[in-house]
Amino acid sequence: MVVKRRKCSLAALMTLLSDANILIDFAKVGGLESLARLATLEVLDVVLAEVDDLCESQVSKLGVRVVQVQETWLPEAMVLKKGGLSIADALCLHYCRTNGSTLLSNDGRLRRACAESGVVVHGSLWAVRELYDQEVCPPDVLCDWLYR
């Protein structure tokens, strides 16, 4: 008997914080549940509020943890809010710096700010590759997502 084992990855051990553009992309192709199976997946409530087609109960059912922004985070986030970052972007950056989370974002400004702050950041293509490497989704599904 051959037992198919899931490959071990750093992604399975990390916490991923999603930016709005990642939520939108993966929701559009029906991939949020798969993304949440890759690693612990979180989203800040202020970021989720930016996504018109999703609400907290929907993403929670898919395995995404919604993090309520704390008022005490705002002063530090305001310091990080530079170079065209929105307050939601700065809050994501602050949260990841504070908690050691990895940020998922396709936003160039936010990715540059992460690099400057020492925060690990990846985009949609990295997530698709991890979903493939970890055998969470079959290749034909992932290729369809990329096509769409």
Instruction: Report the CATH architecture.
Output: 3-Layer(aba) Sandwich
In the CATH scheme, the class would be Alpha Beta
Fourth-tier CATH superfamily name: 5'-nuclease
Note the total helix count: 10
CATH topology: Rossmann fold
Main-sheet strand order equals 3-2-1-4-5
Q: How many distinct folded domains? A: 1
List SSEs in N-to-C order: HEHHEHHEHHEHEHH
Structure class: alpha/beta
Poorly predicted ranges = 1-6
Radius of gyration: 15 Å
| Average pLDDT over all residues | 91
Beta-strand level of the residues, as a percent range? Answer: 5-15%
Helicity range of the residues?
40-55%
Q: How would a crystallographer describe the biggest sheet?
A: 5 strands, parallel
How far apart the termini lie comes to 38 Å
List its salient traits.
single chain; 148 residues; alpha/beta; Rossmann fold; 5-stranded parallel beta sheet; 5 strands; globular; disordered N terminus
Describe this structure in words.
Helix 6 (74-80) crosses helix 7 and helix 7 packs parallel to helix 8 (108-117). Residues 1-6 have low confidence and may be disordered. 34% of the residues are buried. The longest helix is centred in the middle third of the chain and has 13 residues, at 87-99. This protein has one domain: 5'-nuclease (Rossmann fold). The termini are far apart. By secondary structure, the chain is an alpha/beta fold. The protein has helices spanning 10-13, 20-28, 32-38, 45-48, 56-61, 74-80, 87-99, 108-117, 124-133, 139-147, and strands at residues 15-18, 40-44, 64-67, 102-104, 121-122. A five-stranded parallel beta sheet has the order 3-2-1-4-5.
